[in-house]
Structure formats: structure tokens, C-alpha cells
């Protein structure tokens, strides 16, 4: 039997591809990226399965049954599924800040760097092609961050970003390797041809009662002057006569709440407008945008989808976002940008005079990008580190991911009516020391119990715990502590495998957990155990002095944890500095020139 290795590049009947992005929140463009990639794979005759990864994971919005895994599970799932490639993007993912779109969904103060540094590490460790699917780079990196960014770029086998600004933000040294390829959503008209959305559009017309001649309007931030908005829309409507439909696009960006407020403020004016209160799926939004006369809004992908169908687009770039400027520069439509409402009428005139040729050119460039990206799937990894280089990169990534972070990983196991807890029935989550944790767990079938394992290897304190099962509060007496104690609403899990078991009053498909949590080291566990046994023998009724004592001790322990975290961070910095000094010595000219002398000395010592 012939044995094939990855380097032999044997074609496979089916590829398994990990795709990284923010596919677990209700944001129009992000939800389209997997669908677009899957369509391009099929169009090129590739039988492939996409395994999706996002910051927290869960069920993909508007697609029942499509599971999104947390990024922390990437390595574990590789060992089970053996990915043929890791694809990063699209979206504004290449960054080192904490600028999550959804603070409610991404409840921890985690850095966005996990979405591209963890895949780089896994790619190097297991020799998997790492491919950039035209993500965005919203901000330039600092001089201190540049070495790490360069190492991450060196780990990639195919590099592409969605605009010139993104390439510039990566730094001049990497520009030659990075292709500028339009956002792949510019090809969405191939996935959902306009004629195939006609029936859906007619049903939406009947459902909401708007006219055939309409413009879509959208904003995702509070508008400082409703009067300026009303005046601009009035001028546009007087000139072109179309009804204006207020349609939220990015629910994660608070579109709906902002637009409802704005609609209420301007609806009494002499305007023919309509507000879509119901949440629409991405395909329903596409049906609306592809049949509109024009799109006016802050959403990049609202403009991209409209342009893909030849519908004029005006970008309300109030925040001066680089990604919006970059897309309209590629379209050659910078005169269709409006920095405020006063610019809207002129930008509208420019948009309606434009031809669709620029969008067709972007579509062609995006197709060429997909040819290059898909051609790398299953191929040998092109960029391999030396062992020393890989170790240096792993250390640097570990330092960046843990710098000043009190983040912990936990597991929620669940049991169905006919089964018990098992490794195959779990959802992973992330939390931060002492910070509010809020997470809704969604299950594909009813569960009767869950087991919350906040972490492994040390004890844990849980307080301010609230559980909702299908929206109904779960009483405290349904919460069991297998090893530890509960005092005054605080759970002390004094075991190296801390657990809370919650039995449901009735089976449920969604469980919402709200809590504060704090981990303990071994000495703290002993202290808390002694404190519970000897000093804080509370009654079941509230006791003010005992509660104050508990809070004081808790504050002391949190301060000690912060002190230890700072010391650990300093030790890591020292380790990296020592390794760098060692690398500088062994690669220096002096070290190489004195090698014969050192060898001679070694031989002499050996003879003694």
C-alpha cells in the first residue's frame, strides 16, 4: 500500500477547512463569509467541509444547526478532524486591541489577537497551510508589536488583505508578500443571483407593505442631529421620489436601537419613510438591497452587497473608517462618501451617475484571489520555521496572549434526559477574574442538567450567580456543589477540579449564566478552607459583619492574585529578554570566529 504524506500533495475526495472569523454574532457581512467561501469551493469542483471558529462560539445566527466553535478549541478539533487548511477572514481581524463589536456576546476583555495568532501557532505546530482570506487591518502596529506581526506573517502561506490601507498598516517590510484583494462579499451576486431572490423580495413587499421604488437607509450609531438627517433625506426624496426604508443591518452594532430612535425623531416630518422592526436574515437583507434603487448607510457590507448587484451605494462614513475609505477607493467611488448628512445629497447624485463597471472589476479580482487561495488548500506548507524560530514565535505569542490578562477557560457539560455528562456533550467558554461573566448557551436538543467547570487545576469562588433556563430563573436550591461549600450566596469550590451542578426544574434549550468568578492557587485554597471551617461559621440568615469580613478577605485575595500576575508577567519578560540575548550571542560574528578556539579548549579539557 502506498503511503502519502502531506508533501506528496495527493488530491483528496473531501477537504476539511477551518475558517476563522466572527461568525457567532449578528453582523451581516461576517455571516456571509463562510457561505461565500463554500460557494467558491463548490464552483471550483472542491468537495469541502467548513469548520467555523469565532471568539466564543455557539449556533450561527439565522442558520439553525450550524455550529461555530470557540477559537480556543482550534487545536483540539484539529487533532480530531485534521484540517487541510486554516482560512482567516474576512472581517477586520488583524489587530491587537480589544475592540469587539459585541460586548454582550464577547463578555470577556479578551484581545482580538486570538483570532489570528492562535491559528498561526496551530498552523506551524501541525504543518497546516495558513491562508488569509482578505481580512482587514484597521490600525497600524507599534514598533514594539512589529516583530510579532512579522513572525505571524511569516507563518502564513498565502497573504491577502482587502484594501491598500490594510497592507500599509502591516508595514513596508511585508508589502511585497501581501496581495490586495477585494472583500469576497463583492462576489455574493453569484451565490444569490438576483432572479433567485425575486420571490423572497415579493414576499417581503407583502409583509412590510413598501413600494417597489425605494431606497434602503441604515446607520449604526446615535445620530447627533435628527434635524440634519431629516433635511438631507427630505432633499434626496424630493429630487428622486423614492420611499426611504429604514433597515437595520448589523444588529450587533446596535443598528436597530439607534434607527428606532432616529425614526421616531424624524417620522413626524414631511417624509415618506418606513422602519423594518423585524429582524431579517442575511438572505432577506440581500433580497432588499438587490432590488433597491440605492443604499445609504454606514455598513461596509451594505455598500459591498449593493454594488455587487449594480445598485448605487452611498457610504455615511461619519467615523472615517479605513475599511470604508478603502472599499470606495477600490471602487473608484470616493465621491460617494459622506462625512456628515450635509454631504449626502451630493454623494447621492454622484452614486446614481456611476456605472457598474468598477464593481465588475472588483468581482474579477476577487475571483482571482479565490483561485490563489483555494489552490493552496491541501498543498504542502510553503513557509516553515526553524525549530529555534518556531520556539521564539510560540514564546512571543504566549507572552502577548497572557500579558496583563486574567483570562480563564471553562467548560459547560450538559446532560440530556437519557444521558449523563460526557466529554462529547460540552461547550467551552472564557471568563475573566472578578469581572462579570454573561453567556447564553444554546443546545440543539433539550437538556435536563448542566455542570459548570470554571477551570482545572485550582479552586474557584463563584458569586452573584444567576441561572435562566429558557428565560425562567432557576432557584438556588437546584445548584449543587460537589466539593466545597456555599455561604451567603457565594460558592467556594475548594478542589482542583471545581464544579457546580445545576439541575433544571424542567428541560430547556437555552441556559443563560451570569456570575463573577475568581480562581485560587493552592495556598489560597487552604486559606479559604481554614477560613470556612474555623472563622466564618455563618448562619443561613444574612449576617452583616460576616458578609463584610468575607468581602474584605475576598478583596485581599484578589489583590494578592493581581500581585502574582504582575510578578509572572515580569518573569516572562525577563525570560524573553534572556532568550534574545542568548540568540544574539550565538549568532554573533565573534561567536562564530572563536568556535575553533572553543573546540580546542574542549578537547584539551577532555584529555585531562
Automatic annotation (TrEMBL):
This is Polysaccharide pyruvyl transferase domain-containing protein. It comes from the Bacteria. Residues 27-317 form the Polysaccharide pyruvyl transferase domain. Pfam families: PS_pyruv_trans.
Amino acid at each position: 500500500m502506498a503511503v502519502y504524506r502531506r508533501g506528496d500533495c495527493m488530491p483528496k475526495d473531501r477537504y476539511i477547512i477551518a475558517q476563522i472569523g466572527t461568525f457567532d454574532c449578528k453582523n451581516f457581512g461576517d455571516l456571509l463569509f463562510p457561505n461565500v467561501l463554500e460557494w467558491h469551493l463548490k464552483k471550483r469542483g472542491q468537495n469541502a467541509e467548513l469548520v467555523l471558529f469565532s471568539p466564543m462560539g455557539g449556533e450561527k445566527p439565522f442558520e439553525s444547526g450550524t455550529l461555530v466553535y470557540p477559537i480556543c478549541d482550534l487545536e483540539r478539533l484539529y487533532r480530531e478532524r485534521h484540517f487541510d487548511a486554516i482560512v482567516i477572514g474576512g472581517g477586520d481581524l488583524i489587530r491587537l486591541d480589544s475592540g469587539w463589536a459585541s460586548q454582550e456576546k464577547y463578555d470577556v476583555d479578551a484581545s482580538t489577537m486570538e483570532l489570528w495568532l492562535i491559528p498561526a501557532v496551530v498552523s506551524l505546530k501541525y504543518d497546516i497551510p495558513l491562508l488569509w482570506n482578505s481580512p482587514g487591518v484597521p490600525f497600524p502596529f507599534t514598533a514594539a508589536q512589529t516583530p510579532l506581526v512579522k513572525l505571524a506573517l511569516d507563518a502564513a502561506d498565502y497573504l491577502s488583505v482587502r484594501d491598500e490601507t490594510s497592507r500599509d498598516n502591516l508595514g513596508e517590510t511585508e508589502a511585497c508578500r501581501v496581495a490586495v484583494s477585494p472583500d469576497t462579499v463583492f462576489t455574493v451576486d453569484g451565490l444569490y443571483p438576483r432572479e433567485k431572490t425575486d420571490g423572497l423580495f415579493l414576499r417581503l413587499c407583502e409583509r412590510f407593505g413598501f413600494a417597489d421604488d425605494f431606497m434602503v437607509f441604515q446607520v449604526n450609531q446615535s445620530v447627533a442631529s435628527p434635524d440634519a438627517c431629516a433635511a438631507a433625506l427630505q432633499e434626496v426624496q424630493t429630487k428622486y421620489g423614492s420611499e426611504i426604508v429604514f433597515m437595520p443591518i448589523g444588529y450587533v452594532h446596535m443598528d436597530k436601537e439607534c434607527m428606532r430612535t432616529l425614526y421616531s425623531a424624524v417620522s413626524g416630518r414631511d417624509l415618506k419613510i418606513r422602519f423594518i422592526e423585524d429582524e431579517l436574515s442575511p438572505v432577506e437583507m440581500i433580497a432588499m438591497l438587490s432590488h433597491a434603487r440605492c443604499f445609504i448607510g454606514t455598513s461596509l457590507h451594505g455598500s459591498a452587497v449593493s454594488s455587487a448587484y449594480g445598485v448605487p451605494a452611498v457610504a455615511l462614513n461619519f467615523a472615517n473608517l479605513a475599511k470604508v475609505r478603502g472599499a470606495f477607493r477600490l471602487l473608484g467611488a470616493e465621491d460617494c462618501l459622506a462625512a456628515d448628512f450635509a454631504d449626502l445629497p451630493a454623494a447621492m447624485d454622484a452614486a446614481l451617475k456611476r456605472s457598474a463597471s468598477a464593481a465588475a472589476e472588483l468581482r474579477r479580482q476577487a475571483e482571482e484571489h479565490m483561485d490563489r487561495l483555494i489552490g493552496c488548500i491541501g498543498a504542502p506548507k510553503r513557509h516553515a520555521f526553524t525549530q529555534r524560530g518556531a520556539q521564539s514565535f510560540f514564546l512571543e505569542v504566549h507572552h502577548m496572549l497572557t500579558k496583563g490578562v486574567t483570562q480563564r477557560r471553562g467548560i459547560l457539560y450538559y446532560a440530556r434526559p437519557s444521558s449523563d455528562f460526557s466529554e462529547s456533550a460540552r461547550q467551552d467558554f472564557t471568563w475573566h477574574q472578578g469581572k462579570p461573566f454573561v453567556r447564553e448557551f444554546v443546545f440543539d436538543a433539550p437538556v435536563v442538567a448542566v455542570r459548570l467547570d470554571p477551570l482545572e487545576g485550582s479552586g474557584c469562588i463563584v458569586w452573584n450567580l444567576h441561572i435562566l433556563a429558557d428565560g425562567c430563573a432557576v432557584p438556588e436550591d437546584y445548584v449543587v456543589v460537589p466539593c466545597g461549600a456555599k455561604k451567603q450566596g457565594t460558592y467556594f469550590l475548594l478542589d482542583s477540579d471545581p464544579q457546580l451542578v445545576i439541575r433544571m426544574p424542567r428541560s430547556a434549550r437555552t441556559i443563560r449564566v451570569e456570575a463573577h468568578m475568581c480562581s485560587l492557587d493552592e495556598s489560597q485554597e487552604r486559606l479559604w478552607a481554614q477560613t470556612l471551617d474555623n472563622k466564618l461559621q455563618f448562619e443561613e440568615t444574612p449576617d452583616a459583619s460576616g458578609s463584610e469580613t468575607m468581602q474584605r478577605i475576598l478583596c485581599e485575595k484578589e489583590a494578592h492574585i493581581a500581585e502574582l500576575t504582575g510578578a509572572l508577567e515580569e518573569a516572562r519578560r525577563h525570560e524573553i529578554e534572556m532568550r534574545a540575548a542568548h540568540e544574539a550571542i550565538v549568532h554573533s560574528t565573534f561567536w562564530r570566529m572563536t568556535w575553533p578556539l572553543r573546540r580546542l579548549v574542549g578537547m584539551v579539557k577532555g584529555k585531562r
